[in-house]
């Protein structure tokens, strides 16, 4: 039955891509809300898949983390350990360390662990989120075999004074406060302050005990607060700057597994990040200077085991580059990108690493309806290992005005070992080689509009394949402790399908979207004679995921509904069953001159489904959130 339903959805989405002859030949309107304008943002690479989150989607999810945003609005699978706990991405069936996270160009992925906790990133802190699939991620850096998540925080609009205060309350003692103020003239500034707290003591069904008793989550409270400050402006004609600072603290208890006792574990995270960007515009050339710094602290305590771990890392980032476009059909970008990391942990003291690359990007559109893109990234790691990442892409405009485009790309990418992989004592392996991936994808996309302009369609299909070699795997070593080795080979391949329809008739606005992902990610090389995992789906990588959403709006009122399906996943012990989640949201308000008031209500997991995203990690059933916000805007 499930297979027939999936086939029906796939067939419907495929057929929806090819009705171009029915519609007018005028270019389609934008199918999304107006997006944040990022000064100096590079032209999107043709022939590569990149998806920028709709501004309305970001607004509707401003109370959530990046993990929840992606779970609800993409087919990126999030390995979520529970509300407020660790959340790691699986992008196109790759490991969490093969998805890189960026903020204003600054890499946020930990050099110690090689991953970023997406539950520690509040959507309220950023203004734009872009998903860069596969080889598209090479534009910002190496290592994102599955893809990158690129975020931007910018200041207020020009000639505007604004302020907003939001307060919400939810189940399990959830309380959230968000404040934002902005000022924009020649210099534009924005201040954001946020605070979130939850007892997180939800009831759940313990599937590991006889009789499936209901229990209350223990030792799971969390608190998070932060401040984001941005400043943008024009120094003089054709010379712009942008500066941003982000400070955040998160204090959380770590709940036990369903099968273990409570160890009273806690974790404290503190981060300070700063970025600076300079843009100089000349007749045929644009000059850019990006710089950044981050300092991250992680304290872990286990009172029962007597563990008190303190880890700190710092990152320095600089990227001067230029963009040249003297010829109408050719654009060239080149620069020097350098990243220096230094870390201290209980298992090693003051270890560092440096990465230097020279990215060169070319885009050519001199052939009718054909655009070509080339990217080269020679890179060195600690000035010892030298690799060359690359990508080549093509986009063919079969029907003009984006009514039907075909695209394809191929590339090679490298991911360096983490500091823990190299220097952990005991077990670190300083002789590890970089992981390397060969990726390719092909697909088609279109945008259509009815003759009266009231109905818009946007559709896409992508086929991809990625083979990762020298995959780093921790294994039991001869000395009685675990050690990492370049042993594994993984092949990930699949299909991504998306469709969106927007209707605007007589003041009613209806938006319906759907996305489906098929991913086969399998081990291709046995780690030992006893390894029986070759050809099997990797753990915590669902073969099928789907997401559907509908939003209806009239005047100041908006109602939205979401459906999320995740197929069964293999685990280290057995498997976790499939689950479906339904979420509802209602928002309404009114405006009095320069002041807007709005109230909202959210029902999450409407059907009260009992499920686990990670084995033995409880997730909440049905829960609610109510809130209100007041917004002030004045033109200057």
Describe the structure.
The chain has 636 residues and is mainly β. Helix content is 5%, strand content 57%. The strands form five sheets. It has a 24-stranded antiparallel beta sheet that branches. A five-stranded mixed beta sheet has the order 1-6-7-4-5, with no helix packed on it. It has a two-stranded antiparallel sheet with strand order 2-3. A hairpin with a 2-residue loop joins strand 27 and strand 28. The longest helix is centred in the N-terminal third of the chain and has 14 residues, at 2-15. It is globular and about 65 Å long.
Distance N to C terminus: 60 Å
Largest sheet: 24 strands, antiparallel
Unreliable runs: 1-40
Tell me, rounded to a whole number, the average pLDDT. 91
Number of strands: 35
Which descriptor suits the 3D outline? globular
Strand-residue fraction?
A: over 45%
**Which structural class should the secondary elements be placed in?**
mainly beta
The portion of residues assigned to helices is under 10%
If helices are DSSP runs of H or I spanning 4 or more residues, what is the number of helices?
A: 4
Provide the gyration radius in Å.
24 Å
Quaternary form: single chain
What distinguishing features does this structure have?
single chain; about 625 residues; mainly beta; 24-stranded antiparallel beta sheet; 4 helices; 35 strands
